[in-house]
Design goal:
The complex is a heterodimer of chains A (about 250) and B (about 190). Chain A is an alpha+beta fold. Chain A folds into two domains: about 5-130, no CATH class; about 140-245, Immunoglobulin-like (Sandwich). Helices cover about 35% and strands about 20% of the residues of chain A. In chain A, helix 1 (about 1-15) crosses helix 2 (about 20-35) and helix 5 packs antiparallel against helix 6 (about 115-135). Chain B is mainly alpha-helical and about 190 residues long. In chain B, about 75% of the residues lie in helices and about 0% in strands. Classes of the chains: A alpha+beta (about 250), B mainly alpha (about 190). Chains A and B meet through helix 1, helix 3, helix 4, strand 4 and strand 5 of A and helix 2, helix 3, helix 4, helix 5 and helix 6 of B.
Chain lengths: ~250, ~190
């Protein structure tokens, strides 16, 4: 039994650290449902390890959150309806039509025959967008080309209330200038957050999925053209860009 | 029980009764530590802010998730923040792999990026205790613990990166946790 408990303790330690995977995670799940509830020793060990896991957070230096965070929390608590998010039916219909066409025609794999997994991923993302667009309150938003950005280029953001995923799609995203790359920003209360580069495949069809995004947190989206490989601090106002209020 | 832990319990009771002032006070106490660990784990301000926001919202929406018979509120809440931060990092890694955006993350913050955090004294004391306890661990035990906790890595990944058997990772992790538990319990009693 001592050896058994040594093994169980190892699993519980890994469990509270979120460090288990595969068979170990499955075994821990079984233990937590079948053994730990009826074993005072293991229950006490788990409680101790969980408390330790919380205190370990203190080893990181404290950092003052942005002053805007508490007001945002208050707004989220009060569940204030977001302003200016009326459905844009035109964008909805146009994006749905283009994505349906892409999926139906197998267009997503036309230029990706040597990268099957990417093609499958993109096809899956396209289907997820279609699914999301059917959900209540889905609100596709067209991003307006800014400055000298080709007016015919289309970028559409799709999100829905209470869905923590944001999609960005384009069927004809132009190639960035040599040495440049597209950067995705999300804005809240005038502050812009660099989310990461928006990868443009060779065929110009962008299907980007951002998981675990609190879409109620942001009020604007902006795609800018930045020097490739750099980490911009502020959105560039030069070069191509697309922008919309959410 | 420390006096501050008792105060936390009272604040939590008031939050359960939908007292916004108590919620704000818990944010004042734990916003800095929460954002600190979220930044340390995610290394990205945007994600760290979302982690902290979601953790506090979870507290507001489901305060009953904290069982006051099973330890301090501080430990419960900071563990919640840590778990969400690790989840966020793993989702971000999956997304990055899918969208080939590995090269353009926000800068990683160092150990002590902010000097202007006003922190309750008892948290500073506990922080010192935790850091001192960590410093007593053998280097190889501290390494696997920090790779898991702050690196968000699974034991399988840690074993691969260090080139050691996964059994060794498990053994070192448990040994580290046990030593920390003993050291911090001693501090609690003292």
């Amino acid at each position: 039994m001592t050896q058994d408990h040594e093994r169980i303790d190892e699993l519980l330690a890994g469990y509270v650290l979120l460090a288990l995977s595969g068979p170990d995670a499955e075994e821990a799940d079984r233990l937590l449902s079948e053994h730990v509830p009826s074993c005072p020793r293991c229950g006490a060990t788990l409680a101790d390890l969980q408390a330790l896991s919380g205190d370990l957070a203190l080893a990181a230096a404290p950092v003052a959150p942005p002053e805007t965070l508490l007001p945002r929390l208050h707004r989220a608590i009060e569940e204030v309806p977001l302003a200016g998010r009326a459905p844009r039916r035109g964008a909805f219909v146009a994006l749905a039509a283009s994505i349906v066409a892409l999926v139906a025609m197998g267009g997503l794999s036309l230029t990706l025959d040597d990268r099957l997994s990417d093609a499958e991923t993109r096809a899956g993302t396209a289907l997820e967008i279609l699914s999301l667009m059917r959900s209540p309150g889905a609100e596709p938003v067209s991003l307006a080309p800014q400055g000298e950005t080709p007016a015919a280029s289309s970028l559409v953001e799709v999100s829905a209330p209470n869905v923590r995923t944001l999609y960005l799609a384009s069927e004809n995203c132009p190639e960035p200038a040599p040495g440049m790359a597209y950067q995705l920003w999300l804005g809240a209360d005038g502050q812009w957050f660099a989310v990461g580069p928006m990868f443009r495949p060779e065929d110009g069809v962008v299907l980007l999925e951002l998981e675990d995004v609190d879409t109620s947190f942001y009020d604007a989206i902006w795609i800018t053209e930045e020097v490739a490989g750099t980490v911009p601090q502020e959105p560039s106002t030069e070069g191509r860009s697309w922008r919309a209020e959410l | 029980m420390r006096e501050e832990d008792s105060q936390d319990l009272e604040l939590h009771r008031r939050v359960s009764a939908r007292d916004r002032a108590a919620f704000d006070e818990l944010y004042r106490r734990y916003g800095g530590p929460a954002y600190g660990v979220a930044l340390r784990v995610t290394a990205q301000e945007l994600i760290a802010q979302e982690v902290v926001q979601e953790a506090f919202l979870a507290l507001w929406r489901a305060p009953e998730a904290f069982d006051r018979t099973r330890g301090a509120f501080r430990s419960f809440f900071l563990a919640l923040v840590h778990h969400r931060a690790v989840d966020a990092v793993r989702r971000e890694q999956r997304l990055r792999q899918r969208t080939e955006r590995a090269s353009n993350l926000e800068p990683v913050h160092g150990e002590d990026p902010a000097e202007d955090v006003v922190e309750d004294a008892y948290l500073g004391v506990r922080r010192k205790e935790v850091r001192e306890a960590l410093a007593t661990l053998p280097a190889e035990q501290r390494q696997v613990l920090e790779m898991a906790y702050f690196g968000g890595k699974t034991q399988v990944v840690i074993a691969e990166e260090l080139g050691i058997p996964i059994g060794t990772v498990k053994t070192r992790t448990l040994a580290a946790m046990r030593k920390l538990r003993v050291a911090l319990a001693r501090e609690d009693e003292g």
